# Entry
Amino acid sequence: MVELGWQFRLSILVVLNLIATGLALVLLSRAYRSSQESLRDIKALAGHILSSVDQAVITTNRNGIVTSINRHGMELLGAKLDCIDKPVKELSADLALDQFLADWQAKKPSSLTRDFHIDADGRTVRATCQSLNDVEGKQIGKVLQLRDVTERILLEERMRRMERYMGLGSLAVGLHHEIRNPLAALSLHVQLLEEQLEESQVSEEVQQMLAVIKAEMTRIGGVLEGFRDFASMENLRLEEVDLAKLIQRQVDLAVPQANQQGIDVRFVRPESPLPNITADLVRLEQALLNLFVNAMQAMPNGGELTIAVTATADSVRIEIADTGSGIPEDLRSQVFDAYFTTKSEGTGLGLALCDKIVRQHNGSLDFLSNKEGTTFVMTLPIQQAAIFAD
# Structure
């Protein structure tokens, strides 16, 4: 009987132990499921946050293998989901991301920023690299952030141009006044000197020196007038302008010179009629012709000049493209600077004046350039609210 009693008690303890173990397993299972659900929620939340960020976010391991990429990153780089677990250099053929990560690894700063210029479409992508650490602070990879800053850089460049022009306006007025009067007096005295010398025999050498003086005075006068036109504060004389006829007229003016240089000129217009715009006809003709001449000068050995026009409800876009050798990258920031030129002849005011005229019309003038040529893009509003001064 005693032995049966002990067996009964032992059986009860075993049953109670099994029940307790079962309850513990149930509680542990619930806790595990709850933690899994919380982890999924955290991952989903992190994924939604990364997807909503307006920049590309890419993580890699220490060997440069992609471990994650957000939606904006795939859109920016044209990547696909199968890019995970592949080297970062395979994400883009235009961006040397592997070299960028290698430079960061060599220097190991807190962060590293670099701009990549994509010649194919003129975009600028700004890359930033930081270390990816675990909870103990040990580096387990890298975080790469990419942002398209093309519009920001264009805006900064336009602001920089405007700041330069503001100072040139007052400078032009002073220079024109201080130089024009002495130049006029000098021209008058040279003319009087010529009249006196006509009455006596002078050597050919003296005549050549006088010719040089007159030529240089004429050149100074031309430069002065160009500077005055560039920095002029005059208002626009707005009128309704037939855009198609305006462009065709400038194309006709450019064709003879283009034929002499072996350049084919194409005027590409949309099927629907181009709208009339409100503009200063004379200044707009001047800007377009300057751009055409500049494009032809970029093709001394022949090529193709293409003028393409598109229109929206409120603006028109005129693209002037050449097939020259392009603008060197180290000179692109100076293209619209006054008196900057790479040519042996000219004042360097052509493109600066074009930019000013377009800005006076509340438009914009930008360009894209690579080794296959340069495209200047002029954007103009169809309607002007009022007559605008510079």
Summary: The radius of gyration is 35 Å. The longest strand covers residues 123-133. Residues 244 and 274 are 6 Å apart (CA to CA).
